[in-house]
Amino acid sequence: MTVETILFYLFGILAVVSALGMVLNTRNMVASAMSLVVTMISLGAIYLLLEAYLVSALQIMVYGGAIVVVFLFVVMLLNLSTDELPPGKLRFAKIAFVIAGVAILSQVLIALGQDPLLTAQPEAVPEGFGGYRQLGIALYTDYVLLVEMTSLLLLAAIVGALILAKRKID
Amino acid sequence: MLPLDHVIGLSAILFTIGVLGVATRRNLIAILMSIELMLNASNLAFVGFNRIWSQAEGAPAVDGQIFVLIVIAVAAAEVAVGLGILLSMFRNRDSMNVEEVNLLKW
Amino acid sequence: MVAAGVESDLLHWIPLLPLLVAVYHGISIGVLRRPMQPRLAAIISCAAVLTSFVIACIAFRDLLALPTDSRVLIDDVYTWIGAGIGSSAISAEVSFRLDPLSAVMILIVTFVGSMIHIYSIGYMEEDHRDDQGIQRFFCYLNLFTFSMLVLVLADNLVLMFLGWEGVGLCSYLLIGFWYSDNWNAYCGSKAFIVNRIGDFGFLIGILLLFKALSEIGHPAISFAGIEEHFDGIVGMTVAVPAWMPFGPEWQLVNVIALCFFLGACGKSAQIPLYVWLPDAMAGPTPVSALIHAATMVTAGVYMVCRLSFLYAAAPEVSAIIAWTGAITALVAATIAITQNDIKKVLAYSTVSQLGYMFLAAGCGGYSAAIFHLGTHAFFKALLFLGAGAVILAMHHEQDMQKMGGLWHRLRMTRWVFFAGVYAIAGFPPFSGFFSKDEILVAAWVSHVPGHMWLYGIGMVTAGLTAFYMFRLWYLTFCGESRAANDVRNQIEDPNGFVLNPLWVLAFFSVFAGLAGLPQVWGDIIGIEESNSLANFLEPALVAAEPHLIKHSTELWMAAGAVGIALAGTGLAWLLYIRKPGVPGWLAAHLTGIYRTLHNKYYVDEFYDAVIVRPLVVVSDRVLYRVIDSRIIDGIGVNGLARGVRAIAADGLKYAQSGLTQSYVFFMIVGAVAIVGYLLR
Lengths: 170, 106, 680
Description:
Low-confidence stretches of chain C: none
Number of strands of chain C: 5
Structural class of chain C: mainly alpha
Structural class of chain B: mainly alpha
Number of domains of chain B: 1
Low-confidence stretches of chain B: none
Mean pLDDT of chain C: 84
Strand order of the largest sheet of chain C: 1-2-3
Shape of chain C: globular
Order of helices and strands of chain B: HHH
Helix content of chain C: 55-70%
Largest sheet of chain C: 3 strands, mixed
Radius of gyration of chain C: 29 Å
Largest interface: A-B, 89 and 71 residues
Oligomer: heterotrimer
Strand content of chain C: under 5%
Radius of gyration of chain B: 18 Å
CATH topology of chain B: Helix Hairpins
Helix content of chain B: over 70%
Distance between the termini of chain C: 78 Å
Distance between the termini of chain B: 56 Å
Mean pLDDT of chain B: 85
CATH architecture of chain B: Orthogonal Bundle
Largest sheet of chain B: none
């Protein structure tokens, strides 16, 4: 039981609990969003433990700092603090969902437990793995096309978001 | 060391929770947040697998992390556009209930 | 018959011209909906048939130019059906064959046909029911001519069957020509349906023949091909259920011959399928003349003669044919003596004369049958057309009891009509005498069991024929007029279109006998080989028994035939001129016999009760109400629809709720299923 393992379990449990908190919290939207932030940050910590340093930093900055903030903006803009209707129809459907979810999960976990590849001990990482230098080289040599396409996608998203959210001028 | 199959298991758990959120919640913003959770779970799986297969000739293989970066970018774009759609819908129906989005019924 | 023949390009024009005109009329009426001038339409149709006649004459001349033992002209147009390989290869070509038998037939068909077409111009114009009807009439007439010519010229059984069906169809169309009257439509349907029963036999015959031939490795449906390999199937037998007569096995050729004869019964109105012919008189009179006297009903006789090799190898069936023909002739003649409608008398007379032809064919006298077919075509067409002239003159009155005394008024028609009556009664030297005599001789010399009885029946029927024909003559033309007063003064000869064909036909009725003058008379007059018809036909038909009788016997038989005809005529004169009250007295005192004969032995009623009513009841109660409505419609069609609707409305509908989350749920279910399957 190394420190890494303990930290991993700690952050893992935190992530699961806050995820559940986000999903099950039907009364307070802002609290849901906050739970989401906690989940993002604990995932970022787990990335650190997995020696993906740049990704971890970006996860916390972009997800926790930008995306959830946008969610909060919208929540507050629309004043949705307590805007959830009481559970009405489809109660059975919800129970069915739970069962379905458990079914997926158990299947995956069973598969995982039997896979020899995963249960082997991980090797040591090579030098520079996860640092910005390696990632940068990979991004701009092997995956440069991907980068360009992503930039186009972001452009489209900006334009789309602007148009969709624009208030009509009358 | 770090039990990597547990990492993948954690990813599966988070994904399932995300699915449950999408299927169960009735508030549209909550559904979007659950989608984000699903994306994060898949990111975790990518990084975990990348940790397993990190050796290659010469330079280390960082493909998983590249993919995660792209996914984060895409998720950001998607949130922007999705919330824009959401706002339009709110302006039209004055409600955030996903059951109002049912024009396919006809 | 010979296998190969000389190529000729003319033959396919003979049936093609009427077909083209018929199609043109059909398109003009049906598709373009711009009918022509009636007179123009009629003239085009007549021109087509006349041209066919001219081409037939040219082809006949070409045929005569060939040496006697290889007189065959073949015109192979294209292969219609080509299927199968090896010993089950069927190859039905559209191929026309002109040999002596079909040459005689096409000459008769086209010539009498064109006479009737010309007559129809005059006859149908007097009939102003429906102007567009005239073009339709000629369209059907031409279509009929086409079918009949295909039937006669066909080189193989399948093409012949095409023509066979075609004439049946045209018969239906023409009988029910004035279809706005339901009775006419009913008669047309009756003709067609009864014909179909015969067609079934024909088809079974074709199939059996083909199967037998393919079993011995020489599949063929052309007449030449069948005859060539026919000896191979002569010994084959068919197993029949043990309770049927004549043992557990029947000769295959007998079965095939019987099947074909069933077809002939339907088409040529023999017992038991003759019931359609009297009712077919509901059609216009030219139709009765063409189809039900001269051409279509002779198709059965033609078919039997064409397959003469088959019937020569099946003596039992030939006997059946002879006896059926004889009995039909007798029965029809007995019915004819009591009928009052002029066309019905002629219809039963046709059935009777067809019986004579089958009598001859069954006894092996195929050329005698064809001879009588030819002469009968002339004088029966003449009689029908003359009757049509009489009906027109009497303003559409067909009941003979209202006619009389027309001798003084119809000055031209009386001569031609008398020629026809004289010919059919069998008095010398008109054609009917010679042809009927040939038939009686054939019956005398044949080997059919009981052939002397056949001869006796033939004689009695000849007497009856003379009786009822002269009865018709006396009732119609002689004595005092029994017509209504206003009609009496308006009776006059019909117009030129109607009369002139009658003269032509009368000429042939008188002189056609010379074509087949039996040798006995030829010896008296001093002509060698006088029976040109029989000599001409000899290569095409299986050789009949040579006349093994002395000439003196033949002369005595001829005298006997004339004698009995005189007796019949005399009796008719007695009953209808001398003592006109006697028939009424006889009818009143012999009511049983009179009523049976007058009501046609109640055969129609019998068929109606035994066959038609049960079929109708079964069709309505079982087939329609139960099977069609309840099972097929209810369970099949409506039930299927209801089932689908139930599945969709009560089941699948909920999958299309429009709720995003239920769609998500189904996606999850699908994903779980796939992952579960893959992780197996």
